[in-house]
Amino acid sequence: MTINMRVTLGQVTVVVTEQNPHIIIGRDPSTCHIVSNDASVSRQHAQIYIDYGFLYLHDMGSSNGTWVNGIPLRESPVPIDPSQQIFVGQQQLFLEDLAVGGKKTMMVAQPEAIRAFIAGREAHMSAQGTAVPTYQQANPGQQTAAPFATGSVQSAVQQQPATRDAQLGLGGSEGGLPAEYTYRRQGSNSNGVLLIALKQDTFANDNVIDGFLEYTALDAETIASITIELVEYHKNGPSKGHVWDRMLVRQGPWKSKKNDVLPMPFNLRVPTGTAVTGRDVNWELRGYVDINWAFDVQATAPIMMKNVDMEQVRDALGTIDYRIVELEPLSLGQHYVGKFQPPAQLRKQLGVSNINLDIEYLGADLLIRMVVEKTSMFKFDKKAEFKFDLARLRTASIHELGKHFMDNINLLMK
Questions:
Q1: What is the pLDDT of residues 124-176, one digit of tens each?
Q2: How far, in Å, CA of 184 to CA of 201, rounded?
Q3: Cβ neighbours of residue 31 under 8 Å, at least 6 residues apart?
Q4: Is the peptide bond before 253 cis (omega within 30 degrees of 0)?
Q5: Beta carbons within 10 angstroms of residue 275's beta carbon
Q6: What count of other Cβ atoms lies within 10 Å of the Cβ of residue 284?
Q7: What is the pTM of this model?
């Protein structure tokens, strides 16, 4: 079997192949291929390697553990693939199979077992109070050196410790949500209630939306999964909206009992070139509880979306007294069109009727195409094109940016 796996921890990515078959993860930059500054990661925390055509993960005696599907590894390497939930200390490890049609890891909430274990260490609790069964203890008799394609090993990795209900937080009487998560929306039916809780209802491009879901069971059911999505609805887009990010908050199946309460933190990433909420665009968070053989529970929370880059462009043109007519996103974001005008009483004097903008996101850059429409029918319209580094654009003075637009307008008018 040929391995071509992208491994990501935090902002660092390495591709493991037959030509690069062994990597070490940790805080020590002199010995590690993937370096993390997270305090929960040891100097030499874990290693990933290829052996006989299969990919293995081995904990190197770390303080806070390496976890597969909520179970800590300790003694022996185990086979891994993108379907598993892997945490190095408190950081989630992402795998992406670069083969055609390959799978990649979905972002999930940190298992409660990890938080409890690390909190216990930090509080110097007794060994009995912090003990969590290792992968080998939870799966006695399993061969950890078997290929990850083998069904018996795959199912063993997906097993959960005996304290699973406690790890999920089932059976509680309150959700335990912080008081600052004040923006709340819910959906319900006879099976349960799903609450979406946020600190605010307004976000901007490149933000991370941190929130909580809380599921309260009103009946005994088998729950398959709970997810949350960031959805954009555009007048000219898909009727059911476009999902920009999705998080699997809890993977089942598990049995719920009546009045069980399950609080679940989540975070979603807002895209770089997000469309602004307006007459053509609406945004919402969409939560979903998938219940086997019963009616699913859904909840939606409408939110407002801003775009800090478009605000910079708008305000910069405003400093030179060019007045906005429209600045609208095209379907599925990453592209805007706009029109600005000089003061109506000065059109003839300035010789400009409109400034037309076509703004497109290109990775870390923002490409702006500007067409100056001249008032005289005997003069050709003039075009200019310039590219901004997004990071610099967001910190630039709007007056300097306005001067840049003015210089280009004057140049085109000559």
A1: 444 444 444 555 555 554 444 433 333 333 333 334 333 444 444 444 444 44
A2: 9
A3: 24, 43, 44
A4: yes
A5: 29
A6: 18
A7: 0.58
Distance between CA 13 and CA 342 in Å, rounded?
48
> Quick one: 239 exposed, middle or buried, by C-beta within 10 A (0-12, 13-18, 19+)?
exposed
DSSP assignment of 136-170 equals: HHHSTT--TTS-TT-HHHHHHHT---TTHHHHHTT
- 3-state DSSP call for residue 62? coil
Q: Name, in order, each residue with C-beta under 8 angstroms of 250's C-beta and a sequence gap of 6 or more.
A: 109, 168, 223, 225, 226, 262, 264
At 217, the amino acid letter reads A
Q: Which residues pair with 234 in a beta bridge?
A: 281
Q: Are 36 and 25 in contact (CB under 8 A)?
A: yes
The predicted-structure confidence for 192-243, as pLDDT tens digits, reads as follows 999 999 999 999 999 999 999 999 999 998 999 999 999 999 999 888 899 9
User: Rounded to 10 degrees, what is the CA torsion of 374, 375, 377, 379?
Assistant: -40
CB 193 within 8 A of CB 184: no
Taking only the tens place, the pLDDT of each residue in 299-358 is: 999 999 999 999 999 999 999 999 999 999 998 878 999 999 999 999 989 999 999 999
Tell me how far CA of residue 348 lies from CA of 345, 375, 384, in angstroms.
8, 7, 21
- The neighbouring-strand residues paired with 388 are 366
E strand or H helix at 225, and its extent? strand 221-234
The helix/strand/coil state of 230 is strand
Asked whether the beta carbons of 133 and 219 are under 8 A apart, the reply is: no
Residue 19 burial (10 A CB sphere; 0-12, 13-18, 19+): exposed
Question: DSSP letter at 346?
Answer: G
Helix (H, G, I), strand (E, B) or coil at 235: coil
Assess contact for 134 and 156: CB atoms under 8 A: no
Task: Give the rounded distance of the alpha carbon of 391 from its chain centre.
Answer: 20
DSSP state of 315: H
Beta pairing class for 34-35 and 22-26: parallel
Q: How far apart are CA 116 and CA 26, in angstroms?
A: 22
Q: What is the DSSP letter of 345?
A: G
- Other C-beta atoms within 10 Å of 201: how many? 14
Measured CA angle at 175 (ends 170, 177), to 5 deg: 140
Residue 5, classified by CB atoms within 10 Å of its CB into exposed (0-12), middle (13-18) or buried (19+), is buried
